[in-house]
Design goal:
The chain is an alpha+beta fold. It has one domain. The protein has two helices and three strands. Strand 2 and strand 3 form a beta hairpin. The longest helix is centred in the middle third of the chain and has 13 residues. The mean pLDDT is 90.
Length: 64
């Protein structure tokens, strides 16, 4: 079971450097590290009539 959280807006989108992960910011680095380390997931960015960020991670089910 995988969870996908998609965040989008209708603005100008991400700069090309951000999409290629050539440019970094403290905010993106923080979110990327939280997603990778805490959720063991991934963060992807794209432009689709605005900026789109998708966080994907596996849903862990607790056993009673």
């Amino acid at each position: 079971n995988t969870v996908a959280l998609e965040f989008r807006d209708n603005g100008p989108g991400y700069p090309e450097e951000a999409l290629q992960l050539e440019r970094s910011s403290i905010g993106f680095d923080l979110i990327r590290n939280i997603v990778r380390q805490n959720l063991r997931g991934n963060l992807s960015l794209r432009n689709d009539h605005g900026a789109v960020a998708v966080i994907r991670f596996k849903l862990l089910v607790a056993c009673d």
